[in-house]
Amino acid sequence: MNENLKKTIVSLLVLIINILYSQDANQSRVNSTLNAKFGVGYSDFSINNIGRFNMNSISGIVSYNKSLGSFISLETGVGFINNSGNLLNQTHVNNVNLVLPVSLKVNVIGKSANTFYSGVGIMPTYKISSKIDNDVDFDASYSNLINDKGGNFLIGVKLGTEIAVSDKANMSIEFSYYADTFQYGYSNKQKLNNYAAISVGLVRF
Fold it and tell me: How far apart are CA 46 and CA 191, in angstroms?
């Protein structure tokens, strides 16, 4: 390979790297985003003196993501988790929990568009409503426990990807898992022990 060809190849490689770096740098200037996510999954829910039950869950969360550097950001949000399932005597319960997730998010590959990311954080929860549907007489004390408010702090991890759909928006796909690791809460009467979900969302720049 002659010297001129070597210089040409090196020049082309440098040019390509500069172009890619410039595009990535422009994307990294996006220092905040608004996110809206809808998820489906399951939860492990417990009520003192009644038991521990597996429930189906749906969730909706709106969050604000603030960049703290090239690859890391702080995400804070507010939303709900709707847990539904059967308890004793085929009693069907539908609970709605207010959630306030806070997490640190790290972009593993990419910075803005077409990125894979991971995160770790906390999610305070508080049950705001319950609905009991059953045709069987239910002990009044149990009904009071089910209807009572309660909450706790969950600690969790998440893995996801964002795919560019326009210059101003990405679509996100995320798996998250939260657990009551430290067994600490507002009330021991009711709480979420575990929560796992797959969510799809829209990220707006």
Answer: 6
Model confidence pTM above 0.90:
no
CA pair distance 28, 99, nearest whole angstrom: 29
* Amino acid 13: pLDDT: 57
H-helix or E-strand spanning residue 12 = helix 3-28
Q: Could you give the 3-state DSSP secondary structure of residue 6?
A: helix
What's the gap between Cα 13 and its chain centre?
A: 39
Averages of pLDDT over runs of 10 residues in the chain (205 residues) are 54 52 47 92 81 90 89 92 82 87 85 80 88 63 66 90 88 94 64 91 88
Cα(171)–Cα(187) distance, rounded to whole angstroms? 37
Structural contact between residues 160 and 175, judged by C-beta atoms closer than 8 angstroms: yes
Among 198, 201, 152, CA closest to 56: 198
> In 3D, which of 175, 130, 181 has the Cα closest to residue 153?
181
